Amino acid sequence: MGVRPWLLQDAKAQFSALVDAALNGQPQHVTRRGKAAVVVVSEVEYARLSQGSRANVAPDFISHLLSMPRRPRGGAQRSLPSDNQRVL
User: Fold this and answer.
1) I need a surface site. Which of 3, 15, 37, 69 has the fewest CB within 10 A?
2) CATH no. for residue 36?
3) Residue pLDDT, tens place only, 21-70
4) CA-CA-CA-CA torsion sign (77, 79, 80, 83)
5) In whole angstroms, what is the distance from residue 77 CA to residue 70 CA?
6) Which helix (DSSP H) or strand (DSSP E) does residue 31 occupy?
7) Structurally, how many domains does the chain consist of?
8) What is the extent of the structural domain holding 13?
């Protein structure tokens, strides 16, 4: 991590300094109960990071369904039983 992480209570007390450091391009690591908890980054850095991750995301379900091959005309058709033939 290079720079010493912030303790949560120090990050709260000096939040303005934490934000200033993040805006200057230095990700700010915050710990809670002695364990790494969060990293504060600037909005610009967040947008850059999240844009890169979107390229690797699978398409949403509707796009997936629409990309499936369609049944050719004249292909096999499934017939459903009429209401009076259904077994309940």
Assistant:
1) 69
2) 3.40.1620.10
3) 999 999 999 999 999 999 999 999 999 998 866 555 566 887 877 887 87
4) positive
5) 13
6) strand 28-32
7) 1
8) 6-56
